[in-house]
TrEMBL record:
Gene3D superfamilies registered for this protein in UniProt: Protein of unknown function DUF192
Name under which the protein is recorded: DUF192 domain-containing protein
Xref: InterPro entries: DUF192, Saro_0823-like_sf
Origin organism lineage: Bacteria, Pseudomonadati, Pseudomonadota, Betaproteobacteria, Burkholderiales
Pfam families: DUF192 (PF02643)
Domain of life: Bacteria
C-alpha cells in the first residue's frame, strides 16, 4: 500500500511535492499532506519517523472504497480515521509501527486521515465527528 518517502535532516516527513490542505476537526486544526494519486497513496508515511503535533496525511479516493491499511516500513505508531463522502468519521483505529495486519474501515470510505498515535483519542474524537475542509464530492 505504501512505498518509501523522503525524510528531512531531523527524520520527519519533508514536503514531498504533495499539496497540503488545512482541515478542522472538533475545533482542532490539521495540516494534512494530500495523497491523491495511486503512487502517493502507496507511498504514504513509509519511513517517516515523526510528525508535527497537528500534521498528518490525508488519502483521497475518487470513489468510496472498502479501505484497508497496514504499517509496512512505517517506524512510528499512528492513529487512522476512516471518513465517508460527507466528511463523517466511520471509525478511528490505532496502528502499530511495522505491523502487516490490515486495519479496515467500518464502511465505504473516500477519505483516510493518518495522524500521530492517540491524536484522535486525546482530543475525544471518535465515530460520528465531522471533518471540515475536505474536498467533498458534488451531489447530483
Amino acid at each position: 500500500m505504501r512505498r518509501s518517502s523522503a525524510l528531512s535532516r531531523a527524520g520527519t516527513l519533508r514536503p514531498m511535492n504533495l499539496p497540503r490542505l488545512v482541515l478542522t476537526l472538533n475545533g482542532h486544526r490539521i495540516d494534512a499532506h494530500v495523497a491523491r494519486s495511486e503512487e502517493d497513496r502507496a507511498q504514504g508515511l513509509m519511513e517517516c519517523t515523526s510528525l508535527a503535533e497537528h500534521e498528518g496525511m490525508l488519502f483521497i479516493h475518487d470513489a468510496p472504497i472498502e479501505a484497508c491499511f497496514w504499517m509496512k516500513n512505517t517506524p512510528l505508531d499512528l492513529s487512522i480515521a476512516f471518513i465517508d463522502d460527507d466528511g463523517q468519521i466511520l471509525n478511528v483505529e490505532e496502528m502499530s509501527a511495522g505491523s502487516l495486519d490490515g486495519t479496515r474501515a467500518a464502511g465505504l470510505t473516500r477519505f483516510v486521515l493518518e495522524m500521530n498515535s492517540r491524536w484522535f483519542a486525546e482530543r475525544g474524537i471518535s465515530r460520528g465527528a465531522r471533518m471540515e475542509g475536505l474536498p467533498l464530492p458534488v451531489q447530483a
